[in-house]
Amino acid sequence: MTVSEVAAYLRAHDKYLILTHRRPDGDTLGCAAALCAMLRAMGKHAGVLYNCETTEHFAPYVEEYWVADDFDYETVVSVDLAALSLFPDNAEMFKTRVDLAIDHHPSYEGFGKESCVHPECAACGEILCELAQELGQLTPEVALPLYVAVSTDTGCFVYSNVTANTHRAAAALMETGIDYRTVNKVFFRTKSRKRLALEADMLFATLDPTARKLTLPSGLQIILVDTVGFVSRLPHHLVEAFKSTLEEAAYADVIVKVADAGDDQAAEQLAVTDEVLSSLDCEGIPQLVVYNKCDTANLLSFDPDILLTSAKTGVGLPALLAKIDDVLAHRVRGIEVLLPYDKLALADILRSRGSVAEEEYREDGVYYRATVKIDDLHRFEPYLV
After folding, report:
1. Which helix (H) or strand (E) holds 353?
2. Spatial distance between the Cα atoms of 376 and 350, rounded to a whole number of angstroms
3. What is the SS3 assignment for 111-140?
4. Quick one: how far is CA 145 from the chain centroid?
């Protein structure tokens, strides 16, 4: 669905329950609060399902909208919620009952009856900002939680996924007169003694999440996301602090863990990585271990099953791509479909959870040659050609 179509959809219904995701960050909570504020201002009956994992920093922006699971609703909307595994415990019952999903993750699993997914957006808050403008509801009450959403999901606009549109959205929010300086201070310029002590003990550096498109040997188009570097212990307190970066791993189809082949602590670093990935519910995702810089290391000491590469010389990279291809072959399928014009909402799933190689408008619908996840294949079976 387009943002205009979402606006029309929201005008047409009256009772809304809004869902956020596990380990909620500023984007999901800010979007939920803003959407609830919009709907209430429109005279709708709306609430945000209580999320017990909300931290004290984010709670003030959303707590006035909390409702329990016995709330009287007719329409369920999820925001910034990409995967079924990320539904909070008290939202498990809604996994098959989401009427509208609004998200920006490329890995969105297509569980909503209707979906508005824009992977080009750095934060889900960008989508909600456009929606607020479409509905004529960009008030300070809406803009403040949306600024929290956009700023926290972009590292205060420094991550590499930030675009000109991100800044335009931020400008529109700031122009409503909100106190954005306090938000910046609370989330980006204030550190507790406990946080400073933890950072002093840290022997690792976080990296901006960066995304690259890549075509595998089979022709499958994928997106590589470089999330974060692990070098030593990552305490659970910091898992929350860096959640907006780390959470990308939970949406992956395959996780590639890269270690320095010449580092004596490589095995320990991988063990730390495994521990953190486990805390993010990533156990069910296929994982590959890669030792890079193999041109400078003693290869005889490594397990022959470990993939060895050298980004400098290119050695081992074809084998790595072939291995990723092999893993994904069990999770995706190439299809050709002809979608009737009244079923084009399914095209959002092709783009957000798969890849489109060819698109052609025809008299009776739109033809797509694409790659989809095996889990989504049943959605397209009636339209296969």
Report:
1. helix 346-353
2. 9
3. CCCEEEECCCCCCHHHHHHHHHHHHCCCCH
4. 18
Vertex 347 angle, CA 18 and 161, to 5°: 65
Q: How confident is the model at residue 10 (pLDDT cuts 50, 70, 90)?
A: very high
Q: 330 pLDDT band (50/70/90 cuts)?
A: confident
Whether the model pTM is above 0.70: no
- Round to whole Å and give the CA distance between 263 and 254: 24
Say if CB 114 and CB 99 are below 8 A apart: yes
User: Are the C-beta atoms of 121 and 102 separated by less than 8 Å?
Assistant: no
Looking at the DSSP bridge assignments, the partners of residue 129 are: none
Q: Which residue has the higher pLDDT, 292 or 306?
A: 292
**Distance, C-alpha 112 to centroid of its chain:** 15
What residue ranges in the chain does DSSP mark as E strands? 15-19, 45-49, 66-67, 75-79, 100-103, 114-117, 210-215, 221-226, 255-260, 287-292, 307-308, 332-339, 355-362, 365-373
d(CA 347, CA 131): 21
Please compute Rg for the chain using Cα positions: 22
Q: Which residues contact 223 (CB under 8 A, 6 or more apart)?
A: 106, 211, 212, 213, 214
260-288 burial, b for 16+ CB within 10 Å, e for fewer? Answer: bbeeeebeebbebbbebbeebebeebebe
CB 169 within 8 A of CB 125: yes
Cα maximum dimension of the chain: 70
In this predicted structure, what is the pLDDT of residue 240?
Answer: 52
Q: Could you tell me whether strands 255-260 and 221-226 are parallel, antiparallel, or unpaired per DSSP bridges?
A: unpaired
